[in-house]
Amino acid sequence: MDSQIPGRRSHRKSRNGCMQCKRRKVKCDERKPGCRKCEVYEVQCVYPGEDNELGNTVQRTALRKRPTASSESVTGMATRTIHTPPFPRNLGLFDLELLHLWTTETYRTISPRQELQTMWRVHAPQVGFSSPYVMHAILAVTALHLSRLCSTERKQQCLIEAQSHHDAAMQAVVPNISRLIEEQGTAVILFSWLTCFYSCGRPHTRDESLIFGRDGPAAWLTFLRGNKVILESSSDNFRAGILAPVFANGERITNLRHSAPANEGEKYVREMRNLILNKVTDLQERQLYLDIVELLAKSFVVVLSSDSRVAETTVVLAWLLEVSDEYIDFLRRKSPLALIIYAYYCVLIKKVEWMWWLEGLSHHFMCEIYHALDRAYRTQLQWPMSEIGWTPNSQGHEMLLP
């Protein structure tokens, strides 16, 4: 007797198919660089994991290559042409709606500072007109933002469009990343920031890791730190261009943080400092952790003593840019002390969750850290857990404190 359920076709499930086929719930032939179905439907074909792979490539390539002074004009725009897929001519009303939302609302959610808002509202779309992957990235972030604002019935459409634009941007950049960094540095930096916003703001499953990537740091963190490498390797090329406000703000934040007396932040990190002194016997490793904690103490002083009602995202994210690669490696390898330090950092992340694309990250991070730590170390999380309002329930999931 045939045991197959009538009306259903049996087929081998494809677990390694592309993102487009997964969303359409159809079988993917897993052909690379593009599967047959994406070729037929004329859509960009992107496979899972390419985000993180590209992020690592951004950082590696930036370390190897430094743009020359002649590679970009004073406006920060590339003078040479990279052959990337053109932006589709058949833009629909929904894409136009997204672009309108970006220029009227979404750009405000990137930074509270007016000079940076102007850059995102005016100059970033201008770059996107000549570098389509930047425009796709803008529309991907805006579609995510709209999904937070619109009705439930329309939310799924927004998420699908966001993923589609993100995939298109990734597909345009992946095969050209080395040349793009060298020849379109400004566009790549804008793309990387937008990709970071997208990676943080998209819906996350409960068991998804945002700290521990498969082969390195999570994609959003790699893009964030990769930008620092590009900017520092060719800062003079960008200071006179559209990124000039970014440099001015970065210098302001650096001066603010480094002029903050670390001893005023001692009360926030005292237990963590004592733990390092008691647990770490290797002098070099001990100093590495102590230096990172000192940077964190300065960040606490700036953020928690600020007269402003809202913390600046740049102030909080600056710590992630300043910590050493060795610390990021300890974090990736789930070193207990690295995780506990990051748990304290979650208190600062909580202060910038007024930004929709950062909302909920402190709880997600803390959940990851809690379950990655041995029980003996979990007692060290009591203060940061209470500060962000998170505690595990009996099933090991998060529960808000009253």
UniProtKB/TrEMBL annotation:
The keyword Oxidoreductase does not apply. The keyword RNA-binding does not apply. InterPro entries: Fun_TF, Sterol_Uptake_Regulator, Zn2-C6_fun-type_DNA-bd_sf, Zn2Cys6_DnaBD. Keywords: DNA-binding, Nucleus, Transcription, Transcription regulation. Gene3D superfamilies: Zn(2)-C6 fungal-type DNA-binding domain. Coiled coil: none annotated. Signal peptide: none annotated. Pfam families: Fungal_trans_2, Zn_clus. Residues 17-47 form the Zn(2)-C6 fungal-type domain. SUPFAM superfamilies: Zn2/Cys6 DNA-binding domain (SSF57701). GO terms for molecular function: DNA binding; DNA-binding transcription activator activity, RNA polymerase II-specific; zinc ion binding. This is Zn(2)-C6 fungal-type domain-containing protein. It comes from Aspergillus leporis.
